[in-house]
Amino acid sequence: MSQLDQMLGGYAPPPVPEGLAARVAAAAIQEPQDRGMMLPWRRGSIRGGWRRGTLIGSAALGLAFTSAVAAEVASGGRIEIPVVHQMVEAVPILKASVHKQKPVQLASIEPRHGVPPSQAVEPSSAAAVPEEPVAGTPRERFIAKFTEAK
Prior knowledge:
mainly alpha, 49% helix
């Protein structure tokens, strides 16, 4: 034991006076009880400060959970958050599915109806073949492109 423990162990608090509880209760009854003084944080007539805090905390928790579910579903199962993953698996509509990429079909140029074939637009072979880069420094390539544009 330390010296402080010994000193506190030797200290005896004074006895409670007779009838103290009755006097305190009688004094509390005689004092007017103003509701505004009991709840000093109450600003409005409808909601108190403690209710606002609970509402804000609930909203923050709900948004955090919603964003976790969205991350789980949008990732296609690559991100697994332990509790959220179990809940997503339990709901059939939210089950993460890997999206299969559909084959891409390229559009072809067809002549318009009513236009003679001689006037139909044909794809130019020059546009399909990329230009070969001009050898030289960047300045020489810039000058070459500039002269082509004139």
